[in-house]
Amino acid sequence: MRQRRPTKNRRKAFIAAKKCGVIILAYMLFILPVDLMNCAHLWLNFVCVQCTRITTWGFMIHGFVCPIIYLFQNKLLRTVVMLTLRCRRIDEHALSLGDGSVM
Q1: Which of these, 1, 4, 30, 61, has the minimum number of CB atoms within 10 Å of its CB?
Q2: Membrane-spanning residues where (predicted)?
């Protein structure tokens, strides 16, 4: 018995879903820890107001590193949103063909 090849829309939906998964995984591995470190660092600055040296270095590092991190984070989040919308459009198109199953 011969297996049916997946349709073009199914392949597109699978590739888009795979991209969404990779980007969400990248967010969890790289951006989320950075956000948590930023929260911890701000808390450290709040607690160590008396420790002038730590606070000064903290603000210097925060001022230099954070703009780079936020640029990367915004680009990544924008990509996640765009890919999610694209996944949804492809899924809706595949379902509208009357196939009934996307994957």
Answers
A1: 1
A2: 21-44, 56-72
